[in-house]
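About this split. The held-out portion is used to measure sequence recovery: a designer receives only the structure tokens and must propose an amino acid at every position. Recovery is the fraction of positions where the proposal matches the reference. Here is one held-out target exactly as it appears in the evaluation file.
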């Protein structure tokens, strides 16, 4: 089971970064190259505890659907989502946030997953999947950082409370 750890410092308030991380619209924007879209459950705005989102996207040349459930939320500090159906055997994505002394936000992603197909899945992880998943998370975090720092967040549904 690969465990991916990413850390990002964002020059934006904690509350904005936390809510952008829960934004369906930011997620879609960050993964445009995969034609990612929400097709069931929460379709726009900010996901809340107990909600599901079903995503459709093209990954590794194959259009796939994946449904995730928001299992835990501690406002402005933590939330987690877990796959309830999709291509993986399982996955859990934890999002951690901390306000730094200078007002910036430290964001940490912990992403754990198990590939399907047993031993073949382990080989796929080593050959390409772990790197592919890391790059997807890095792209998402780069987009989140840019949107948070340049004020584009003001245009996204669900972010009105920060205006």
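Reference sequence for scoring:
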């Amino acid at each position: 089971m690969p465990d991916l750890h990413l850390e990002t410092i964002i020059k934006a308030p904690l509350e904005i970064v936390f809510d952008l991380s829960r934004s369906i619209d930011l997620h879609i924007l960050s993964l445009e190259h995969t034609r990612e879209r929400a097709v069931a459950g929460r379709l726009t705005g900010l996901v809340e505890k107990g909600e599901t989102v079903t995503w459709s996207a093209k990954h590794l040349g194959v259009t796939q659907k994946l449904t995730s459930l928001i299992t835990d939320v501690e406002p402005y500090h933590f939330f987690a989502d877990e796959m309830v159906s999709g291509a993986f055997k399982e996955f859990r994505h934890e999002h951690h946030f901390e306000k730094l002394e200078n007002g910036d936000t430290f964001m940490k992603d912990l992403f754990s997953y198990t590939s399907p197909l047993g031993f073949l899945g382990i080989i796929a992880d080593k050959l390409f999947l772990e790197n592919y998943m890391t790059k997807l998370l890095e792209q998402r975090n780069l987009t989140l950082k840019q949107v948070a720092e340049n004020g584009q967040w003001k245009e996204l549904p669900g972010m009105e409370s920060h205006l």
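Annotator remark: Helices lie at 14-21, 24-30, 119-150.
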